[in-house]
Give the backbone structure.
Amino acid sequence: MKELLLLIPLFFYCLSGICDAVIDTLQFHYSKSIFTDYNEQWWNPAISWTNKYVDHDVNKGLKKITILGFITIDYPVQLTDAFHFFKMWREVFNTAAITSALCVGTNFTSLKWYIVLIFFCLVGEARNKVFNLFFNKILIK
C-alpha cells in the first residue's frame, strides 16, 4: 500500500494550487473577488505592495527590523501583503510536495513505471483542477 502514501505529496501540491489561485485572483480579479470584503491594505495588490515601505512611501525605503537592539534587517516582504504571503506558501507547499514524494519513494525503483507515470499525471492534473476551481468559482463573488 506504499502507493497510497503518494497522496501526501498530492495533498501538498493541491495546497500550492489554492495559493496560486489566491495569487492570480488578487492580481487579475481583485475587484470582483471575495477579498474585497477584507482589509484592502493587506489584500488589494494595487496598494498592498506599498506595505513594505516606511509609511507606504517608496522614497523612505524598506521597513526594517532591529533584532537584539543592534542587528537591522529588511522586513520580510512575504509578511507585508497577501500576494507575497501566498506566494511564499505556494513555494513551501511545492517544496513539501517534492520532498515528501522523494521520502515516500526512497525506493522508487520498486514501483512499476506506469504507476510513476500515472502519479505524475495525477499530481499535475489535480493541482490544475484545484487551481481552476478556486480561481474561477470559489474566490469569485
About this structure: The radius of gyration is 19 Å. The chain has a mean pLDDT of 88.
